[in-house]
Design a protein that fits this description.
Layout lengths: L1 E6 L4 E8 L3 E9 L1 H5 L6 H23 L8 E7 L3 H18 L3 E5 H12 L7 E6 L4 E6 L5 E6 L5 H11 L7 H8 L24 H17 L5 H27 L3 E5 L6 H13 L3 E3 L3 H4 L4 H12 L20
Parallel strand pairs: 1-4, 4-5, 6-9, 9-10
Antiparallel strand pairs: 1-2, 2-3, 6-7, 7-8
Helix pairs in contact: 2-3, 4-11, 5-7, 5-8, 6-8, 8-9
Bound molecules: 5'-O-[(R)-(carboxyoxy)(hydroxy)phosphoryl]adenosine (KG4).
The site of 5'-O-[(R)-(carboxyoxy)(hydroxy)phosphoryl]adenosine has 19 residues, from helix 5 and helix 6.
């Protein structure tokens, strides 16, 4: 089954051609990150307008790279939630038009379900059930993936997403947007234990997380140093910050896997590209006898192949949208 998949939930326009859930024939991505870097973060209206400009050409390029024609397609899958609403609407409307014009089924895909499905592309042997740690710029979720389409949220951030926290901390350290990768590189030159940063616990909830206090601590350190005319040890702050984020994520993911009776953890999302978090996950999973899957860096960030992959399983489960499909800025992953 050939699926044309569309993703436009943030600042990457992406179109992929994907076969039977696991084989990627083409995966085209037009990133706008450079445009938003000027402003230090994503400007929603600019993101929407850039999606509008490139999405059709990107679809043509994906079909060409895949070596298939429009008539070969069997379905269209699209991210319809969550994301920047204007940005998501562009992809939804484009996918709807393609499905309508070609008379194809339209499959709505939850963006974070797509991130988790990136693992199916990288690891053909991976099948549910497993525990997913989905950590991206807009979402931080611990999810029990019971089947390809039956999911339960075990824990979630109560405020900022982990990636958002990386981006804000990077900004006060003078690093470019998006800040996750530069923080990762900077942390390699740091000395652990230089800065004492908070690790939040959400009272009454073992698996929920909070990152806003950590973000504020880094902002305050930077401002206080600037006011006192002192130099910050930026590399050590990047390292201590990343260790704090990792300590909030990794033990919870392991404990959640054990609570749900899962023997496998799959990481997903842009923050899963972080070298310290990847190493901590590997160590913790080895200690607890858990199998770990972490997608290659190319599949951690936003892409449309992951949407096509999850779209295939949504299709098999009978999930379809009609031409009145709408876009949503937020949506529970359990609802699909
Ligand atoms: O999954 P993604 O591309 O977009 C969303 O769906 O949100 O994630 C983007 C986020 C950004 O916050 C970016 O700074 C972060 O992933 N990121 C990283 C790294 N690479 C990207 N965070 C930490 N370490 C990295 N190496």
């Amino acid at each position: 089954m050939l699926i044309l998949a569309v993703e436009s939930s943030c600042d990457e326009t992406a179109v992929a051609v994907e076969e039977d859930g696991r084989r990627v024939l083409a995966d085209k991505i037009a990133s706008q990150a450079d445009m938003h870097a000027v402003y230090g973060g994503v400007v929603p209206e600019i993101a929407s307008r850039k999606h509008v400009e490139v999405i059709s050409q990107l679809a043509e390029a994906a079909l060409k790279e895949a070596g298939v024609s429009r008539r070969d397609l069997d379905a269209v899958a699209v991210t319809y939630a969550p994301g920047l609403i204007g940005a998501v609407l562009v992809g939804v409307n484009f996918a709807k038009s393609v499905a309508y014009a070609l008379g194809l089924p339209l499959i709505p895909v939850h963006h974070v379900r797509g991130h988790i499905a990136a693992n199916y592309i990288a690891f053909p042997e991976l099948e549910p059930p497993f525990l997913a740690l989905a950590i991206s710029g807009g979402n931080t979720l611990i999810v029990d993936v019971k089947t390809y389409t039956d999911m339960e949220v075990i824990g979630a951030t109560r405020d900022d997403a982990a990636g958002e926290c990386f981006d804000k901390a990077a900004r006060v350290l003078g690093l470019p947007y998006p800040g996750g990768a530069p923080m990762d590189a900077l942390a390699k030159r740091g000395t652990a234990g230089t800065y004492d940063l908070p690790r939040a616990h959400v009272s009454g909830s073992a698996f929920d997380m909070s990152f806003s206090g950590l973000k504020t601590a880094v902002v305050n350190l930077a401002h206080n140093a600037a006011q006192a005319g002192k130099e910050l040890d930026k590399a050590s702050l990047a390292l201590d910050f990343t260790n704090a984020v990792s300590e909030m994520l990794v033990p919870r993911a392991v404990a959640a896997a054990e609570k749900c009776g899962r023997d496998t953890i799959a990481a997903a999302g842009g923050v899963a590209a972080n070298s310290i978090i990847r190493a901590d996950l590997q160590r913790a999973c080895a200690q607890h006898g858990l199998q770990l899957f972490v997608p290659p860096l190319s599949l951690c960030g936003d892409n449309a192949a992951m949407i096509g992959c999850q779209g295939y399983y949504e299709y098999l489960a009978g999930h379809r949208a009609e031409t009145d499909l709408n876009a949503y800025a937020t949506r529970d992953i359990a609802l699909g």
